[in-house]
Design a protein that fits this description.
Elements: H1 6-13, H2 31-54, H3 60-65, H4 69-81, H5 83-91, H6 94-101, H7 111-123, H8 128-152, H9 159-189, E1 191-192, E2 204-207, H10 209-213, E3 222-228, E4 234-235, H11 243-259, E5 270-271, E6 284-286, H12 287-296, H13 300-306, E7 310-314, H14 316-330, H15 338-356, H16 370-384, H17 396-402, H18 411-433, H19 446-455, H20 461-483, H21 491-501, H22 508-515, H23 521-530, H24 536-547, H25 550-553, H26 557-576, H27 580-593, H28 599-606, H29 608-620, H30 622-630, H31 641-644, H32 650-662, H33 669-693, H34 698-728, E8 745-750, H35 751-754, E9 764-770, H36 786-802, E10 813-814, E11 827-829, H37 830-839, H38 843-850, E12 853-857, H39 859-873, H40 879-897, E13 905-907, H41 915-929, H42 942-951, H43 957-979, E14 985-987, H44 992-1005
Parallel strand pairs: 3-5, 3-6, 9-10, 9-11
Antiparallel strand pairs: 1-4, 2-3, 2-7, 8-9, 8-12, 13-14
GO molecular function, one term: magnesium ion binding
EC number: 2.7.7.89, 2.7.7.42
Catalytic activity: [glutamine synthetase]-O(4)-(5'-adenylyl)-L-tyrosine + phosphate = [glutamine synthetase]-L-tyrosine + ADP; [glutamine synthetase]-L-tyrosine + ATP = [glutamine synthetase]-O(4)-(5'-adenylyl)-L-tyrosine + diphosphate
Length: about 1000
């Protein structure tokens, strides 16, 4: 810029007087600073006017004079706060006018506009020096608008908009520079060879940290990882390079294009230390090497870093493919509470560094700072993201807002954390807006403090500090609630010392000494005896056997540390249980089962309350202990007692399952099968927990177990239907029309499922029925006959129910009650089903039909089945012939399945006077009386059939009441034996009264002459 004389400058100053900027919105202590800032800007305008006059152009000050009062007030505010804005306008006074004319002082340009604007400038760049200049000038102009909007806050602009704008700017600069460099270097080195599938191959640029999240601050580094898909050589240039060399050179130039400091400054500081092996590793890695590294060597902090990874430049599609392949490393399928330990260690390192450097006032790294909010959110993402896939997002804001929906944080906590985080980030932006410098430290200069207070629209600096102290205290409390050590940083040690001084034998320190073998045998046995172990020798032998086992000795360091940290807490919880010997016997197999999946050890250590629930459930039920040992993922259920002891009703079950399956791609059958099984195991565990806690009546327990099965059957039917329809199209209905998206199919439940009496280990007795034109075909690209369509549909349903996955099976399925049994068709039409029941079915099959009902499928078709069932059951029968057949069948069952006269033993189901007798009484009553008493045909469960027999007067009220009481007593006992892994038998003397009631009723109704 040309120099001018002092006289000329003075004359030009007259065009923009000193009172050009209103200063009544600026605090009095800052008005002298505003005057100095305006003097610098006026001098720059004077020089610009002088140049304009010499070249015959319009003087810039004339356009400045046209600024309205609101814009002048904003200018005064921004100039006094931000040296960056002042320095930029001093160098480029015309930029303010251009931004104002383009609306950029009010709203951020969209991405397309940014790319077009930068693209025009890059087209004119003939060498890398020109590239650097163009990018830096472009970035500085855009940052002028971003800082202006952040400090003036026009409608719709907040911290999140500012962060998004900076992130978008960084992405556009990265992609623009990369594209220019690829074209510039092509004559020399050519382009990378295409991938094996023919796709073009480009550099993949992953944005990490706040860039990946789309939440950059005003003066942030950008953390990057470079990658490329496949090895090979470049093609079409003067010299071919191996892809590794080519992409390394390209990456180096890309870094320089943004990071190097030139006469125009820098664009973005680039940090590549998050790549594998950090500064010591290769700058660029191919997909195969990256996958191998993360699988074999990936560390916990790298999982944390990859949470925010996002393709930001280059080959975005390939970047998405790479991250999809790395997702299992980042998001574990199981609950990964080990992540908390890692975050705790990271925070410990940060705390020590903060203390060493005296950075307690740092609003990012200090107590209650930005990083602690991030750790809270990312802890839940790492722990639960594999299961709750809606948490697999890079944005902190989005993840935080979703935590209440998945039950991980109360809404009121999020309602505190979110605005507190916004305040901290607004303060960070205010600090960085001063000089476009990356800082999170509070200023010591009084004037800078006043500038920050003004940027935050707060009255003064003491007000800022008071608000900051409140925010940091709240953040620290929430951080401690999630991340803090369960034993307390120091509290755990103090607690142990107090217990030892009080003479308590069962302190954590004592248990730690026992577990680690520091006590001799006599001391160990004394400790176990004093804590109510009735067989201390056996307990000690079990513990020593575990500690010295090959599995434990072979554990990696971090796994062994987790086991070592958990065992004292676990032994303490065992000792506090009602029966320590039983609790230890049942819980140690669970510990052994997770020695290779030590995140579960971390889960129990991080959640002492979960240990308490574990002891309670395992102490009460070996079946639950076995389930937890087989499927450790169920330990998640122990974390939420409000749902653990409160099973969901059917509507909520269906909604939960729909959401779980909705997170999984429709074509990922393996993941869907696993999700179905996890859902079933988790909800059955909840039912068992409520059963043990006595919070659910027996009838409700069976109801809930039946609801779980029904919801799963509906889901399985839907999955199987979609699969067959995709291949073959829709079958024709019996009336000639085409089926729709809803299956034209029924799943009929028989036995315990039909009678709404499922137990914990019950099989499913099923029959499949369809309503289609047997002579028609499907209408898809591979049409098949209707019969051919429905048989694979039934087979697929059975496969989905019985296939073995890591989470086991859903249910064992019994199809023998279908027409003609095992020799009959797997799926039959409703017409054929009705014909069979009318003309071929045996009496025992009609007995089975009493306990049959639709459990999944088409509602209109279900009405047709109900009509057939009522017709068959409501027939007029020869009562005496019926009686003889029912009695003969029952005697045969007793002979084969009863207790065979074992002294003092009563088989709750099969012996005379047991559950099956009551079921046969109900079935006989329906078949013999249904013609005259149609209300009996409505129900499939024994309890309501007995109630109807009473209300209709067909049996004496007292008999019906006492039969119901007996039936409930038997079912309750059977439930208990399921949970305790015992045979469904009892002491004859305990059930004598109930047995006699049933025997008397049997003889009156079914054997009156004997």
């Amino acid at each position: 810029m040309l120099e001018t004389s002092e006289l000329r400058q003075g004359e030009l100053h007259m065009a923009l007087p000193d009172d050009f900027l209103p200063d009544d919105d600026v605090p009095a202590p800052l008005r002298p600073a505003l005057g100095k800032a305006w003097q610098r800007l006026s001098d720059s305008l004077a020089q610009a006017d002088n140049v304009a006059e010499m070249t015959g152009q319009e003087r810039p000050s004339e356009s400045w004079e046209a600024l309205d009062e609101q814009r002048r007030r904003q200018l005064a505010r921004v100039l006094v706060i931000s040296d960056f804005v002042l320095d930029t306008l001093v160098r480029h006074p015309d930029w303010l006018l251009h931004l104002d004319a383009g609306g950029e002082l009010e709203a951020a340009p969209d991405e397309a506009t940014l790319r077009d604007t930068l693209g025009e400038r890059l087209e004119a760049a003939e060498d890398e020096a020109a590239l650097h200049a163009a990018i830096r000038r472009f970035r500085r102009a855009r940052m002028l608008g971003i800082v202006w909007r952040d400090l003036t806050r026009p409608a719709g602009v907040d911290m999140w908009h500012t962060s998004a704008a900076v992130s978008r700017l960084a992405e556009v600069c990265l992609d623009g520079a990369l594209g220019w460099l690829e074209a510039h270097l092509e004559p020399r080195w050519g382009r990378p060879a295409p991938r094996d599938d023919g796709r073009e191959q480009r550099l993949v640029v992953l944005g990490m940290g706040k860039l990946g999240a789309g939440e950059l601050n005003l003066s942030s580094d950008i953390d990057l990882i470079f990658a490329y898909a496949e090895t090979g050589e470049t093609q079409g240039g003067r010299k071919a390079l191996e892809h590794q060399e080519y992409f390394t050179k390209l990456g180096q130039r890309l870094i320089t294009a943004l990071d190097a400091v030139t006469a125009d400054g820098f664009a973005f500081r680039v940090d590549m230390r998050l790549r594998p092996l950090g500064d010591g590793g290769p700058l660029v890695g191919n997909f195969a090497s990256l996958a191998s590294y993360y699988q074999d060597q990936g560390r916990e902090w790298e999982r944390y870093a990859l949470l925010k990874a996002r393709p930001v430049a280059g080959d975005l599609e390939a970047g998405g493919e790479l991250l999809a392949n790395l997702r299992p490393f980042v998001y574990r399928k199981y609950l990964d509470f080990g992540a908390i330990e890692s975050l705790r260690e990271m925070k410990g390192l940060i705390n020590r560094e903060v203390k060493r450097k005296g950075m307690q006032a740092n609003i990012k790294l200090g107590p209650g700072g930005i990083r602690e909010v991030e750790f809270v959110v990312q802890a839940f993402q790492l722990i639960r993201g594999g299961r709750d896939t809606e948490l697999q997002v890079t944005s902190l804001k989005t993840a935080l807002e979703r935590l209440p929906d998945v039950g991980l944080l109360p809404q009121e906590v999020v309602d505190e954390l979110l605005p507190d985080y916004v305040f901290l980030r607004d303060l960070e932006h205010a600090l960085q807006a001063l000089e476009d410098r990356q800082t999170q430290s509070l200023p010591g200069d009084d004037q800078d403090r006043e500038r920050v207070a003004l940027a935050l629209d707060m009255e003064d600096w003491p007000g800022v500090i008071a608000r900051l102290d409140e925010v940091r205290e709240r953040v620290r409390q929430h951080f401690d609630a999630v991340i803090a050590d369960p034993e307390g940083e120091n509290g755990g040690e103090n607690e142990e010392s107090d217990e030892a001084e009080d003479g308590s034998a069962g302190s954590l320190e004592a248990w730690r000494s026992l577990w680690q073998g520091e006590l001799n045998q006599e001391e160990s046995l004394e400790l176990l005896t004093q804590t109510d172990f009735s067989a201390p020798d056996t307990a000690l032998r079990r513990l020593v056997s575990l500690r010295e086992s090959r599995q434990v000795q072979a554990m990696q360091r971090i796994g062994y540390q987790r086991l070592d940290a958990l065992m004292p807490m676990l032994l303490n919880a065992v000792a506090e249980s009602e029966n320590p010997d039983t609790a230890l016997e049942r819980v140690l197999p669970l510990v052994e089962s997770v020695l290779r999946r030590t995140a579960y050890l971390a889960l129990l250590r991080e959640n002492p309350e979960a240990l308490s629930h574990l002891m309670r459930l395992c102490g009460a039920s070996p079946w639950i202990a076995e389930q937890l040992a087989r499927f450790p993922l169920l330990l998640d259920e122990l974390l939420t007692p409000e749902t653990l002891y409160t099973p969901a009703d059917k509507a909520r079950l269906a909604d939960e399952l729909r959401q779980a399956l909705g997170r999984i791609p429709e074509d990922d059958e393996e993941a869907q099968l696993e999700a179905l099984r996890v859902f079933k195991h988790a909800h059955v565990l909840r039912v068992a927990a409520s059963d043990i806690a006595g919070t659910r009546h027996l009838m409700k327990v069976s109801d809930y177990l039946t609801y779980i099965a029904e919801v799963l059957l509906e889901a399985v039917l839907s999955m199987a239907w979609r699969h067959l329809v995709r291949k073959h199209g829709y079958p024709a209905r019996g009336d000639g029309s085409r089926a729709g998206a809803e299956p034209e199919f029924l799943i009929i439940g028989y036995g315990k499922l039909g009678g709404i009496e499922l137990g914990y280990g019950s099989d499913l007795d099923l029959v499949f029925v369809h309503d289609a034109d047997a002579n028609a075909s499907t209408d898809g690209p591979r049409p098949v006959d209707v019969a051919v369509f429905f048989t694979p549909l039934g087979q697929r349903i059975i496969h989905l129910l019985t296939a073995v996955t890591p989470a086991g099976t859903l249910y064992e399925v019994d199809m023998r009650l279908r027409p003609s049994g095992n020799s009959g068709l797997l799926v039959t039409s409703l017409t054929a089903f009705a014909d069979y029941q009318r003309n071929q079915a045996w009496t025992w099959e009609h007995q089975a039909l009493v306990r049959a009902r639709v459990v999944a499928g088409n509602p209109q078709l279900a009405e047709g089945f109900h009509a057939v069932r009522q017709e068959i059951l409501g027939r007029s029968r020869d009562v005496e012939a019926l009686r003889q057949e029912v009695v003969a069948m029952r005697r045969k069952m007793r002979d084969h399945l009863g207790s065979k006269g074992e002294s003092g033993t009563f088989d709750l189901k099969q012996d005379a006077g047991g559950m099956i007798d009551i079921e046969f009484i109900c079935q006989f009553a329906v078949l013999s009386m249904g013609h005259d008493t149609p209300e009996l045909l409505q129900w499939s469960d024994n309890m309501r059939i007995l109630e109807t027999l009473e209300s209709s007067g067909r049996l004496p009220a007292d008999d019906c009441r006492r039969l119901r009481e007996a039936y409930l007593a038997y079912r309750s006992a059977v439930h208990r034996t399921s949970l305790t892994r015992e045979a469904s038998r009892g002491d004859d003397s305990d059930f004598q009264a109930h047995r006699q009631v049933v025997i008397d009723a049997w003889q009156r109704l079914l054997e009156p002459s004997t």
